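Each lists sequence, tokenised fold; shown next:
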Amino acid sequence: MDMLRAQKEEFFEVEAGGGGGRVTAALEAGAAEPSAGGSAQAPLPPALRVRESRPSLTPTQFPAPPSGLSVGRLMKQILKASQLIREKINGIEGTKLDDHFLDLEKKIDITNKAVTEILLKTTEYIQPNPAYRAKLGLLSPMLKIHSWGKASEYLQPEGRLGNCMLKYGQELGEDSTFGSALTDMGEAMKLMAEVKESFDINVKETFIDPLQLVHDEELKQISHHLKRLEGRRLDYDYKRRHVGKIPDNEITQAMEKFEESKALAERCMFNFLENDVEQVGQLALFIQAALEYHQQSANILQPLQRKLRMRIAAASSLGRNDFMPQPLKKCSKALDLTTTSSAKSRGSGT
């Protein structure tokens, strides 16, 4: 108990000197650490005062531990925070990791940022409209591929444009060259919408979903191991710095846990980076889907272009018709009004 009390006083002495805002980061780094103490909870002391040598400071009180967090585990995280504050403020050097490990960690950090941003930008690429982008995740690939059930109400921009052109092309009729051209282009746009929808589903299945899985599982697991490693390093460095006050077996146990976490994190990072051929394969599938989409689009647009050129040539060969003004058709009522008006005019003249 005397040793714990001395460690508590030392921690709050360091915290009073500044840098208390970093305690949260240290606690998070130690959150993945399994509890060294028992699972039974005991009430914390109501207050722990700073040393009398600092009378200007107000009494400091421990926060209530979260549910399921034992006093021993809380104290362990506090000691890690104490070590972190001393490193940041007093310039105390902690245990240095080798260059190979730091290089792996740097590559993993860059990969994590790249995957996160690529996922966002890819979704924006296949659906630039944010109002319809959210619907991309609701697409049912099996419903689209096998045409089961009711057709989806989701329409691609090409499909909405095609519907508009078909509507006015039919209203203008086949006698109108412009109306016929609108009908041709509307049908082509409807086909383009089907190709675009197939492209969206293909990219989501072969690129976005696998990359999201890498982000949510493999990279998240590596981040967990690195966070645990940092927590165990702080624990080891604190105990190593207090040789004589802390039993040797605890220092040895902390060193073994630190080495174990380092080996596990290093192995996970190495295996992930060595398996990057899988990510390259996903990029290849993305490019294949894009190539197929543009080829299918070209196969639709090229015949449409030829058809429109033929319509232009046909309309040009007919020449322009001369304008012939048409006489106004007068109804019977209009004739009666004209006769009555003429009779009144003659009567007034006599």
